[in-house]
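User: quick one
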Amino acid sequence: MTYFIQLLISGLVVGSIYALSALGFVLIYKSSRVLNIAHGQIIASGAFIAYALTVYAGVPLVISFFLSMAITFFLSMAVERVFLRRLIGEPIISVIMVTIGLMSIIDGVIYLTPFGSTNMSFPKFFPPEPLNLLGATVSWTQVVGVILTAIIIAALSWFFKNSTLGISMRAVSDDQLASMSIGISVPKVFGLAWALAGLTAAAAGGIIGNITGLNFDTLHAFGIIVFPVVILGGLDSIGGAVVAGIIMGLIQQFAAGYLDGNWGLQGTAEVLPYIILLILLLFKPHGLFGTHEIERV
Amino acid sequence: MRKMLMVTTIGLMAACFAVTTAQAETYKLAISLAITGPTSDAGAPYAKGVEDYVKYANDEKILGDDEIEVLIRDDQYKTDVTKRNFEEFLDEGIPIYLNYSTGSTLALKKDFEEEKIATIPASFHAGNLVDSNYIFLPIQSYSNQVIALSEYVVNNNKGGVPKVAMFIHPSAFGRGPVEDTKGAVEAGLKMDIIEVVEHGKDLDTTATLQRLMSKGVQYIICHTVQSPVAVLLKDAERLGIIASSFGEEGKITFLGAHYTGGNDLIDLAPTASANFYWTTGYTLTSEPGPGTDLQLMIAKKYGRDDKTANSHNYTNGMMVTQVAIETMRRAKAHGKEINKATLYDELNAMNGDNAYDPLTTTGPVTFSKDDHEGVDKLQIYRVTDGVFKSVGEPFIPKYAVKK
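Assistant: Done. Structure below.
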């Protein structure tokens, strides 16, 4: 039973971090229908900024973590302003190509710094002893990751439901032309979506960096790893990202725990999420909670 | 008269200068590797090792008045770029080539054969040597490293046949040693390989570790890069299953081949890497010795930071350059022209009394027509007080396979 509980808790933890990493994709897609291919690079940037503030500037780790979120918030906003604002109204594929270019630019910039080619770890902050939960062990980093994900998702849900800006973003997501006609600034909404995506990416980067250590290849790979989560949840659904993240996390852990190494099976933890994704998409092509657009001709 | 004397002096000086200039040659040494992109954490210090040793050789006039020009190109771990770089290097007239990754070494194997150019890669994949005459591995292959670790497990396990799992990279690089290790077991190495785990980009390896524990696995031999091993060790530390002494009952002892270890692993998993056992054919700067002195002196001379100076990848880059330059020095000493054929011959003659000790390795570099694995002796290191310290003496694995 402890074995099952350990896998369950590990699955929930991994799923929460997947959800947090996937939020950035969703936020940008939700408002602008653009897939930001450079999301993994922003995750890595957030982690490195937190590390630089802590180690080079001597800022306490917790403050560095929140500062990194603030910095990537404004950096992402600037990226949108400089590279993407002028593409409003252009075909979506052009915008996606620009995000691919952006990925190369961020890669290049990071490789110019010591972060591109070195391995590092955040200074020890959390107690080394793990928490014991019904006989299962969880590290403090993992617990903080789950709590932080819950807080960010709750805050975003409130923001989209109750704040004027959030409602404006939803309106732009529904119909850009109609939103403009009632005085909503679509460019500002896009800028805010990118900024919020940057903020969540930095949070994810900080958590992942604490778990895996700081290695650029490992960190930016999470931009791709969480892609099935985004698709499964529905590209424009925050709740969907959470549910899909947790489903993926659980599938991976249970597959690794019960299938891999038995009956000649190997690598099911890697493959099974994709198989389930394909099967689910056959029945729900817009993902679990994605908007099903009906076009009338 | 005075005018004539002056003209004669200037003429003589110019003639001497011309003769000297004509005699001094410049030889090109080239490497294509990942300074950026995947595995650049290894490639970047490796490139610095190559660059610095060439500077050192020129400054110390190892080739007399002749000079070495080093061509270093970043291929971002992309085989197509490596191939393009290699072709450009050939146009530059290189007599010997240093390559990097397993993928590109396998892909360019035929090119090395066609060009008849000796190649020393950073990849120690045993498959590099299959159907190849021109590839020379600097140290024992990954297969033999894993076999060495397996032998260490068998020789030091207390009671019964040890149960071992392999934790490998999902690629040709990672899979290479699996069959060779199974072959060693068939040949008489008494251990049970319970499972071979190919890792992914895991955030949490709890399930894998618990599964292996439930199967009674006592040892996990890793053959991959540092990052996934760091995640594995951190999870094992959280679960409280890392053996504090070798083979501790009810716990797991973790071991790894060349690219799993070094200071990078300690940087990624500072406390969890304690008691990690690692094998390589290189000396480490965490221990005193002539290799350490040489490496640190060169790193200091050319302004490298501490991290680079103490990186085993820097050692690795230095060592392959030492070998390449030594072949040039020997060819020159034997009165031969320095070209692809003579350097190839010098490498194959590097054995017996002609074995080469670069100081940066745990044994002499020996090559012959039938043996293209350089340093035969491997050293086991263990993380103690945050640094790798040697355990026992360097040894040649009994079940080592030669391709």
